[in-house]
Amino acid sequence: MRYGFIIDNRKCIGCHACTTACKSEHDVAVGVNRTYVKQVEKGEFPNTRRIFSVMRCNHCTDAPCVEICPVEALYTREDGIVDFDNNRCIGCKSCMQACPYDALYIDPYTNTAAKCNYCAHRVEVGREPACVTVCPEHAIIAGDM
Q1: Second label for 86, Cα 20 to 30 Å away, from 45, 47, 51, 134?
Q2: What is the pLDDT of residues 1-45, one digit of tens each?
Q3: Distance between CA atoms of 4 and 67, rounded to whole angstroms?
Q4: What is the dihedral of CA 18, 142, 66, 102, to 10 degrees?
Q5: Strand ranges inside the chain, DSSP E
Q6: Could you tell me the pTM of the whole model?
Q7: In DSSP terms, which residues pair with 107 in a beta bridge?
Q8: Which fold has domain 3-144?
Q9: 98: pLDDT confidence band, cut at 50, 70 and 90?
Q10: pLDDT of 82-97, one tens digit each?
Q11: Cβ distance 134 to 25 under 8 Å?
Q12: Please, are residues 75 and 53 in contact by the beta-carbon 8 Å criterion?
């Protein structure tokens, strides 16, 4: 088993339900996000369109954040979820610099790094990540990759 996300950006309507569900599920502070929706304008007036893209940790196979962490606070579980032990984190921000997806942030409550953990606590009891269950367009698919 190797968990991962597939995001169908053609279906995303930019409603931020995933962002809100994640913030609620993990008590994420105001001003930071584990999941967010990026908006890009394409074309030239009058032929423009807006494209939305859900951004978050991609739980990389060879995660650069895991490799660079000097205290091994980030680790890859056997199921492929890149998880985090904030008791080990020293807040050095190396993981933030290493991540090509800008998926980590400093939690203002703990002054340690934080990121999407694929709602591991939900997955362990047979439920889907919170963002998947609330997406009205079913643009986020989670499962064994």
Answers
A1: 134
A2: 899 999 999 999 999 999 999 999 999 999 999 999 999 999 999
A3: 19
A4: -30
A5: 3-7, 36-44, 47-55, 74-76, 82-84, 105-107, 112-114, 140-144
A6: 0.89
A7: 112
A8: Alpha-Beta Plaits (3.30.70)
A9: very high
A10: 999 999 999 999 999 9
A11: no
A12: no
**Identity of the amino acid at 72:** E
Match 């996000």 to its residue by tokens.
Answer: 33
Read off the pLDDT of residues 60-86 as tens digits, 9 standing for 90 and up.
999 999 999 999 999 999 999 999 999
Pairing state of beta strands 74-76 and 82-84?
A: antiparallel
pLDDT value at residue 145: 85
Query: Comparing C-alpha atoms, which of 83, 145, 75 is closest to residue 120?
Result: 83
Secondary structure class of 126 (helix, strand, coil): coil
Classify residue 46 by burial, with Cβ atoms within 10 Å: 0-12, 13-18, 19+.
Answer: exposed
